[in-house]
Design a protein that fits this description.
2 helices, 72% helix
Length: 71
């Protein structure tokens, strides 16, 4: 069970980083080439929404991992 929680946390960190990079890039133009969101073709024009969605998913993964740890 401990390994599953660690995988959830690592995946959450990756999602959080990618989401923050996507939002920062769209708002400031910096961090060009860092994020994977800009490289996904069907997300053209929706990069901010995709970034915010990744951040929310990361927070949800952290909440799940924390609730499982409390058990």
């Amino acid at each position: 069970m401990r390994q599953v929680l660690q995988v959830l946390e690592v995946f959450g960190v990756l999602l959080l980083i990618q989401g923050v990079v996507a939002v920062v890039h769209e708002l400031t133009g910096r961090l060009r080439g860092w994020g994977i969101v800009r490289r996904i073709g069907f997300l053209d024009g929706y990069e901010i929404y995709a970034g915010v969605t990744l951040i929310v998913l990361a927070l949800a993964l952290f909440a799940v991992a924390e609730s499982q740890r409390a058990r």
